[in-house]
Amino acid sequence: MHSVGPRTRGVAAVAAGGVVGAEIRYLLGVAFPADPGGWPWTTFWINITGCLLIGVLYTVLAGADRPNPLLRPLLGVGVLGGYTTFSTWSVETVQLAEHGRYGLALGYALASPVVATAACAVAVVLTRRIGRARWTR
Q: Which residues cross the membrane (predicted)?
């Protein structure tokens, strides 16, 4: 019997996290279905909150002395990678255009990455400030 190496543990962490993140996204989509031809709020907020959380995770892990090497694959790549969804955002943008909602499609196509990136940046800045306040006490 051989021992499980770091690569195998990393793959398992990504897979386990991906199941959790994708299931959360699926359940939110079922609970809050998109209105055909309307702004896809569920996907929009999933992507925004996912980017905000990845900003927090990135900052916490970058500031940690010795973070567990499985946290990034489990939470970042797995959970948050499975939770956020670039492909659904793309399909919903096309569907808006197919419904003749060209302005809404353009707005959604532009707003999603801009707001998601801003959420990530705000999370990084605030997490650093909170961390510094805690570290200087």
A: 12-32, 44-63, 70-90, 102-127
Kindly report each contact of residues 96-105 with a partner whose C-beta sits within 8 Å and lies 24 or more positions away, as own/partner: 96/37, 96/40, 99/36, 99/37, 100/37, 101/37, 104/37, 104/38, 104/39
- 84 marked ligand binding residue: yes
49 in a known ligand binding site: no
In the chain, the N- to C-terminal Cα span, in Å, equals 49
Contact 43, 84 (CB under 8 A): no
Residues in Cβ contact with 58 at an 8 Å cutoff, skipping those fewer than 6 apart: 76, 124
Q: What is the pLDDT of residues 110-132, one digit of tens each?
A: 999 999 999 999 999 999 999 87
